[in-house]
Design goal:
215 residues; alpha/beta; binds adenosine-5'-triphosphate; Alpha-Beta Plaits; homodimer; Rossmann fold; 36% helix
Chain lengths: 215, 215
């Protein structure tokens, strides 16, 4: 895919680089020359330009792109640019928002998808802080998710049958991460080892409880 | 747990609120009165103060807290504060970083964990952009992860046995999300319905392929 990323702050620059690494053709735009120079080597094209200037956007051939991501925090600028891009006929315009009012306006002017990077990360970090052995967390429903939990010491050397998490905590083990190996939907006869990380699914409270579980 | 969050920008304010919702006692601090007022109703205590002023921190009793999260983007301020908190004896000090150099310094002055909210979110969004039917993505290993993928139209009405993703794409279905219901490690006889979201595990390339799969 051809993707344009406008605004190369912490979020935009990492997005442009990750998309390039996934094999997409990336046009990175920022009004700040320094931001453009820093990214020039990791993307297909890097250009200094003002994203809210219609004539410049047309000259850059932005209408040829499959998707544009408006990644700057300035509320007025991002709304202006999203409106312009939809008027120019781009099929998919995504944007990041600072708060829910900003998101509401972006959606009204035609944004196809809006993300809140800081908020979504804050929710994940809040889950991880609460339970030190929860390495990472991925929300599936409001109070239900997938957690990556370091195997509790008391479980090392035991089989999945004997730790019996399904009945004790109503948590299912989906994967055992053992270094760079993944044991997907492991057999109940599998024995847990020190250093294993369990990828489990369950209620948030049950995942947090697994964290301080002493069998 | 008692957790102090200093710096109530987009990330810090969402972190303080999420931690409060998870039932923790939260002290929220910011040097800007407006930020403090906005959060006052959703946390236990909200105080206007400068996080880099040692006398103020001691007066606030910050040493009584189990964990402090330094959530401001100002590099010098966050390094100063992290150093101070470790000198005052706090057991767990976490901080957010703007880039890898900032993270390196935070770790050297004693930060117990450092996150890059914008970078981590950018990686997730990059995976999601690449494949429109991939609703969300959670990295397990460098090129292997868990994806939430809207069920491809051609699969509706078919059983898991007949779509046979394991052999076709080397992707395993861990969960079927059906509205607010979760079918965990579903039976192979389960029939897929319109609107289902499949939580699958596999290589990044296989998850992206599932996105445009026409049986
Ligand atoms: N109209 C514009 N055209 C092009 N680039 C712009 C425009 N407005 C802002 N930018 C650029 O977007 C980048 C990010 O902007 P800003 O700092 O406002 O957002 P932010 O949300 O704080 O970023 P992040 O959180 O990703 O670091 C900056 O590099 C800035 O130069
Ligand atoms: N020394 C300090 N003591 C207390 N609060 C501070 C201090 N320095 C900055 N802050 C506050 O931290 C908050 C976030 O700061 P800043 O805008 O620098 O970070 P940011 O990384 O851009 O935030 P975000 O991306 O989370 O919106 C602001 O509300 C600011 O008032």
């Amino acid at each position: 895919m051809n993707i344009a990323v406008i605004g190369l702050g912490r979020f935009g620059s990492n997005l442009a680089t990750s998309l390039s690494e996934l094999g997409h053709e990336v046009l990175a735009i920022d009004s700040d020359e320094r931001a453009v120079q820093q990214i020039a080597e990791s993307v297909t094209h890097a250009v200094q330009a003002d994203g809210t200037d219609e004539a410049t956007l047309v000259e850059l051939g932005i209408t040829e792109y499959d998707l544009a991501f408006v990644a700057f925090g300035d509320i007025e600028g991002s709304i202006l640019m999203t409106t312009l891009l939809k008027q120019l006929g781009l099929k998919r315009v995504h944007a990041k928002a600072r708060n829910s009012l900003h998101r509401e306006i972006l959606e009204r002017v035609g944004a196809d998808q809006v993300v809140f990077p800081e908020r979504e990360m804050a929710i994940r970090v809040a889950h991880n802080l609460a339970a030190p052995n929860v390495v990472d967390y991925f929300e599936l429903l409001a109070d239900y998710g997938i957690g990556e939990v370091k195997v509790p010491e008391g479980f090392v050397g035991q089989t999945l049958t004997s730790v019996n998490l399904a009945d004790r905590l109503n948590v299912s083990i989906l994967v055992i991460k053992r270094g760079s190996q993944l044991l997907i939907t492991p057999d109940l006869t599998e024995t847990l080892r020190a250093g294993d990380v369990l990828v489990v699914i369950g209620r948030d409270s049950a995942i947090a409880e697994l964290d301080n579980f002493r069998p």
